[in-house]
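Write out this protein's structure.
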Amino acid sequence: MIHYVTGFMFSEDKKHVALISKLQPSWQKGQLNGIGGKIEIGETPQQAMAREFAEEAGINTQPEEWKLFTVLTRPDAYQVNFLYTYDDRVYSAKSVEKEIVNIYEAQSLPDNVIYNLRWLIPMALDEHLRFDRSIEIIEMRENS
C-alpha cells in the first residue's frame, strides 16, 4: 500500500486556500488538488506534509503546524492522509516544480477541483468540528 499526504494551507481568515494544478496521475491531469505527495519511509504524515509543501509551494513549515483530520484508505491500493493549517504565508505560495500552485477562494472552488475537495475543504474549515483524532474513511469501489 502506498501512503500519501495531501494538505490544505488556508489563510488565517479561512477565505483562501493554496491548490495545485495536477499533471499526473493521468486521472488528475488538469484538476486542482491539495499539495502533497508520497510519505517517505520513517516520516510521519506531518513531516511529509511539511517537506512536500516546501518542495511544491516554496513555503517552509514545521510538522507540528499541520493538523491531520482525515485518512482515506482504499484497501490494497493507497492511503491518503489529509492535513490542514491556517497561515497567511499562503499568499507567498509559488510554483516550484512543473505543477502550478495558485490561491483560490475556499468558499467558491473552481469547477476543476478533484471531487473529494468539495467535502474535504468544508470539513477542514468547519469551526464546529474538533479533530482530536482523524476521521478514518474506507473507500470501496465495485469492480468494473
